[in-house]
Each structure stands twice: as C-alpha cells, then as structure tokens.
TrEMBL record:
Swiss-Prot/TrEMBL keywords: Membrane, Transmembrane, Transmembrane helix
Protein name as annotated: Protein rer1b
Pfam families from the UniProt entry: Rer1
Membrane spanning stretches: 34-53, 59-78, 114-133, 139-159
GO biological process: protein retention in ER lumen; retrograde vesicle-mediated transport, Golgi to endoplasmic reticulum
Amino acid sequence: MEGVGDDGASAAAALNIKPAKSFQYYLDKTTPHVLYRWIGTTVIMALLYALRIYSVHGFYFVTYFLGFYIVYLLVGFLSPLVDPQMEPSDGPLLPTKASDEFKPLISRLPEFKFWYAITKALCIAFIITFFSLFDVPTYWPFLLFIWILHFVSTMDSLIRRMIRYKYILFNLGKQGSNTKDISGADFWSRFKPFYFSFPDHELIIELKGL
C-alpha cells in the first residue's frame, strides 16, 4: 500500500513539474529575440489592456499603479549595477571628460527581467479588470497629471546621470564567425562630429569624418 501511495504522489509531482519546465523552456528560447519580444508585448499586451480600459471606462486606479510600477522598473533598467556616486571604488572609474569614450550601461535590472516583469504586470492588470471590486471611482485626469510629474522628474535625473557618466544602453557592434568584431565606435566613425549642449555642461560626441 505504501508503494502505491508513493507512486501516486510521484506521478502527481511529475505532472506539476512538467508544465513549469515547459514554460521555462519556451521562456528561455525567447531570450535572444529582444526585438520580437518587445514588439509582441507592446502590440499584444499593451494594446489589449488599453482597449479593455477604453471599453469599460474604468479601472483608472489600477492603471495608475501599473504606470508607477513600470516607472519603478524603468529606474532599475536605466540605473547602473554599481553607482559611482554611491559606491566609489579604487579601480578604474567611468569617464567624466568630454574626450573620454562612452561606456556600456550594465543595468541593475537586466533587459530580460525588465521585459518579463512588464509583461507579467500587464497580464495581472488585465485580469484584474474583470473584477469590479478593483474598479475604484477616481478622477483620472488628476492621476494622469501626478504620474506625468513623477515620470518627468524621474527620467530627468536618470538621463542627466547617463549623460554625465556617458552610458550607452545598447551595443551597436556585432560579431561574425568569419569577420572581425565591429564595435560601436567603428560604426559611429562614419559620421561627422555632433555637439549637444545641456544646461549643466556640454556633451561632445567626437565622431570622425568619412
């Protein structure tokens, strides 16, 4: 009798584990397809949620918290893993001079986790819209105004920090099996110099001529 019970428990555990492994398998396969993942999330999930909110004319409070959560994720994505202001080190630091090169941004929240968190948040928010309990009456223009203020103030500080330490989000170079590596500097070297002026300082991107 004990053997029969053990076999049943192991079979039930196997059935529970198999869907999780299948989900993780297909999730891992989408890791290198960055562009298609973001297009799918934007077109399918975001558009579906927007149409749902527009059709029911409600759940603005849920949308407000969803927007704040996305801003929170965006802060993690645009923040460096090691902040040179908060954690100074004895080793080489990021460049702060105009003549220094740009450095890739090693995000505190990796791109895949950033995408997965946004997708999961959109799915949860979409499911919540089917429960009238969460449709809290509110004045949505006021919530939108507060969210815009929060977004602008947050992005302003992040962009200023990225300009100061010369972060770049994406690597423009690519690798080939029979060709040498093409770095971002080689790509941009085909263009002429551009100069961007900011209130605090002048950011100069030195790009060689053709």
